[in-house]
Write a structure and sequence with these properties.
By secondary structure, this protein is an alpha/beta fold. It has a single domain, classed as Aldolase class I (TIM Barrel, Alpha-Beta Barrel). The protein contains 11 helices and 8 strands. It has an 8-stranded parallel β-barrel with strand order 1-2-3-4-5-6-7-8, surrounded by 7 helices. Strand 7, helix 9 and strand 8 form a beta-alpha-beta unit. The longest helix has 19 residues. The protein is globular, with a radius of gyration of 20 Å.
Length: 219
């Protein structure tokens, strides 16, 4: 499974990239605005830093506006993926952008039916928001499972990008269900790296090492 980071913070992206595990980035207007700089400058910096796909989201709500913004975003770099919100207007825009060979990540997906429509319209990625689905008392991972089953049945080229990840178990479940990608906040990636037994094991190793040195054992 590929691992994306869900952030517009360049320092977080640098840190995760240095671990050798980063495959791409997802952003949105809210994340870009939080950086307190010109969003276009932040986007360009991220695009230059990350060789993999970088999702940049449109702000228009009509198909014409989405297509216009999407084409403009696609000129920034070859690794731009245009994020389009699910809906009738979004499907129209996705069809037109995909026909123009512009990669689309259809976002705000909350059902397998929506994912099916996104794939048929030509989306390169579909983003079920598992955490938000859980928030309304439904099972976000069940939706991922349904999408995976459908895509296997019909050999869609669209990739499942599990989004709205809240904790490491979400990442584990997404991987077990066959999601192609999980886009994960920096804090969750930090949690994935750590385990209390790893810390205990390291402490014990260092304690034993220091004991050996104190005993002047030939090492």
């Amino acid at each position: 499974m590929k691992l994306f980071i869900d952030t517009a913070n360049v320092e977080e992206i640098r840190k995760v990239s240095a671990l050798g595990i980063l495959d791409g980035v997802t952003t949105n207007p809210t994340l870009l605005a939080k950086e307190g700089r010109n969003p276009n400058d932040v986007a360009r910096e991220i695009l230059a830093l990350v060789p993999g796909p970088v999702s940049l989201e449109v702000t228009a709500l009509d198909a014409e506006g989405m297509v216009s913004q999407g084409k403009e975003l696609a000129t920034l770099a070859s690794n731009v993926v245009v994020k389009i919100p699910m809906g009738a207007e979004g499907l129209r825009a996705t069809k037109r952008l995909s026909d123009a060979d512009i990669a689309v990540n259809m976002t705000l997906v909350f059902s397998a039916n929506q994912a099916l429509l996104a794939a048929k319209a030509g989306a390169r990625y579909v983003s079920p928001f598992v955490g938000r689905i859980d928030d309304v008392g439904q099972d976000g991972m069940q939706v991922v499972q349904e999408i995976a089953d459908i895509f296997r049945n019909y050999d869609f080229k669209c990739e499942i990008l599990a989004a709205s990840i809240r904790h490491p178990q979400h990442v584990l479940q997404a991987a077990r269900l066959g999601a192609d990608i999980a886009t994960v906040p920096y804090a969750v990636i930090e949690q994935m790296v750590k385990h209390p037994l790893t810390d205990i094991g390291l402490q014990r190793f260092m304690k034993d090492w220091e004991s050996l040195k104190a005993a002047k054992v030939n090492i």
